[in-house]
């Protein structure tokens, strides 16, 4: 689906995104997460963007973590930044999530809306 690049989410965009998160195929979800996490819209996720994502996910989900957000971010880049340029392309992000269970789990938890839907 298509998002307007106006900096706002209208109702139909919201419904489309919610539907995708709840029922979309894994690759569609990962592609949507990538666009969401690519804060500056340059087509890549850099360490700073990923670090902020990990920190936000941990703040929302709570719990104890064996590694710091910085260590986790570095580990993700070591594993899935295939060309070593310090940025994750869409392909690296999708492939990396598919191959790296820990990263996939974190990405899926980041927008797990099942508890919200259960309350509705």
State the helical fraction.
Answer: 55-70%
Mean pLDDT: 80
- Helix-strand category: mainly alpha
Q: CATH H-level name... which superfamily?
A: EF-hand
E-strand count = 2
- Characterize the largest beta sheet: strand count, sense, and whether it forms a barrel: 2 strands, antiparallel
Protein name: GUC1A protein
GO molecular function: calcium ion binding
Keywords: Calcium, Metal-binding, Repeat
Organism: Callaeas wilsoni
Describe the secondary structure blueprint for this structure:
Layout: H1 11-23, H2 26-37, E1 44-46, H3 47-61, H4 69-80, E2 87-89, H5 90-99, H6 101-110, H7 114-119
Antiparallel strand pairs: 1-2
Helix pairs in contact: 2-5, 3-4, 5-6
Features:
Recoverin, domain 1; two-stranded antiparallel sheet; 7 helices; globular
Describe this structure in words.
With 120 residues, this protein is mainly α. It has one domain (25-118): EF-hand (Recoverin, domain 1). 65% of the residues lie in helices and 5% in strands. The chain is built from seven helices and two strands. A two-stranded antiparallel sheet has the order 1-2. Helix 2 packs across helix 5 (90-99), helix 3 (47-61) packs across helix 4 and helix 5 packs across helix 6. The protein is globular, with a radius of gyration of 15 Å. 16% of the residues are buried. The model has no long low-confidence stretch (mean pLDDT 80). It holds the Pfam family EF-hand_7. Keywords: Calcium, Metal-binding, Repeat. Residues 25-60, 68-103 form the EF-hand domain. One of its GO terms (molecular function) is calcium ion binding. InterPro entries: EF-hand-dom_pair, EF_Hand_1_Ca_BS, EF_hand_dom, Recoverin.
